[in-house]
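Researcher: Here's a chain I'd like modeled. Treat it as a single chain, no partners, no ligands.
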Amino acid sequence: MKIRFTVNNEERTVETDPMDRLLDVLREELNLKGTKEGCGEGECGACSVFLNGKLVNSCLVPMAQAEGGEVLTIDWLKDSEAGQLITESFAEAHSVQCGFCTPGMVMAVWNLLKENPEPNEDQIRLGISGNICRCTGYDMIVDGVQIAAKRALERGGRVW
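Model: Modeled as a single isolated chain. Structure tokens:
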């Protein structure tokens, strides 16, 4: 079946089974390798993408659900001002070790800061709660988010 959707602001059409996972199509058909498969069960957040403006685990999304939709991945976000700000803040706070969770974590942080540009620690922890980090631990990730939020406010908040 042909499925048409927009990926990272580019219209795409793929020939796929409507029950194939969005994650697999992004990685294998469209070669967008930034989105990772971690658990494959929607528990870890490594495969997080935006579908129609909502943060979702792409390992749980059948392609039929993406028909006519808009998908944004880390492959797009990493080159944006917001993505650069988050990743630079993570580097400064030593928020990353192995980096496997980073794409999904950055997507979750962008989602959080778009909705709440001045989150407190509890709000940050809630905002990243669907993402598992097995290496760094969450304190340094929270620090990275706080740095990103502060820097965005210093820029007038226009980043998100």
